[in-house]
Amino acid sequence: MTTARELIVEADGGSRGNPGPAGYGAVVLDPVTGETLAEAAEYIGVATNNVAEYKGLVAGLTAARALFPDATVHVRMDSKLVVEQMSGRWKIKHPDMKPLAAEAGRVFPAGRVRYEWIPRELNKHADRLANEAMDAGKQGRQWEPSGSTAALDAVAARNAAALPPSGPPGDATAGAARARAALATRTSGVPAEAVTGSADVRGDGLFAAEEAGASSGDFEAEAGAAAPTGHAARVLAPTAPTAAVPAESSATAAAPAGSAAPRQGWSGPDMGAPATFVLLRHGETALTPEKRFSGSGGTDPELSAAGLRQAEAVAAALAARGTIQEIVSSPLTRCRQTAAAVAARLGLDVQVERGLRETDFGAWEGLTFGEVRERYPRDLDDWLASPKAAPTGGGESFAAVARRVAATRDRLTAAHAGRTVLLVTHVTPIKTLVRLALGAPPESLFKMELSAASISAVAYYADGNASVRLLNDTSHLR
């Protein structure tokens, strides 16, 4: 009789450039002991974070199913997007994300998989595997697990010997072989029956990444391409089977494994110094206190007297901190005036970047929300309901703004790696940068407060991940 059990799958993926060189990592864990049962990692060529994360999920689920086809699975990931989409709470709007989600959903019946978001620091095992795969790809080789094949086989043999006679059919060694076979078959086309013996399998085929990926959000599309690099997996035969564990106890039991210090011989990814963007919203204009739409398609107003005072105050605060190394500004007048005040204090030049301009609000420019509601009620409802809807009269949708801002972010991140750069821009670009860094849905744009002359900060790391460090700080204006 097969013993039912629960498995934990932790998965992660990353892209150094988003899109850029990408890879994933996944690990299958015993929820009671925290023991590693299987590992998988692959360099997938040029792709986005979302593509890599989904592929890591598929690889982890595949390994879990090969070990115990009847298991229930507790998936833990630090990708809010993947967790919420696979849980059914967020819609999968981007057409190129749907096949990846569908592939993951076919591995196990939906009722046997539950998803949990965890902080990145609790997902270090999968993150490390993903970075090892990307490092290997950068060196033109395939990922190889640490430890010799002989050592892994010895572990499998010891664990298999410890199994009681009443263990499930196929025992641990066969379960490990099934996992190796399933993972190898995905990449090299080797029949499952042909994979036996070693606990270390390296496929030399392609794991196609032809799908287009989303760039940190589910309505942005950027193509991902496969690279001719193989996939590798390590499977450790589990110890004696354990009974299924209730959800509450399994989560508690697994926590120490996720938060423990790295094992001897392993180390975390060396991400280096991040590119840190200090995001400064411009000072007030005459339109700001009246809460009127003021984008890139309007009158391009100057700073008001209050806005000029705010610019001087934020300039003094940034000069006192002494961390800004470069200044980049939107081309609109209110931002250039704010940037000039800071530049004069810091003795820096101002670079102008068109990608940082505000949304074009079309016919809504200069109007209040109430006036737009009165004149264009249907268009306003559509705009509030969908990021793809544009303001009346040829305005710019939030989806279009997000694509523009993401492309600008990627250019600036590549150009200013390891430096702290002040970006003087507007409400929508700043909220979009924060949203994309958090992996939050488009509707979160309406839930962030962003005052005039406020400061926010996001750090972008070499592995493609980001950290929001500050949001809407106005302490320098008091």
TrEMBL record:
Mind naming one GO cellular-component term on file for this protein?
A: cytoplasm
Q: Name one GO molecular function term.
A: RNA-DNA hybrid ribonuclease activity
List the CDD domains hit by this protein, alphabetically: HP_PGM_like, RNase_HI_like
What is any Pfam family matched here? Answer: RVT_3
The positions flagged as active site in the entry are 282 (tele-phosphohistidine intermediate), 358 (proton donor/acceptor), 358 (proton donor/acceptor)
- SUPFAM superfamilies xrefs: Phosphoglycerate mutase-like (SSF53254), Ribonuclease H-like (SSF53098)
Query: Which residue range or ranges hold the RNase H type-1 domain?
Result: 3-135
Binding, substrate? 334
Annotated PANTHER family:
BROAD-SPECIFICITY PHOSPHATASE YOR283W-RELATED, GLUCOSYL-3-PHOSPHOGLYCERATE PHOSPHATASE
Protein's name in the database: Bifunctional RNase H/acid phosphatase
| Source organism per UniProt | Streptomyces gardneri
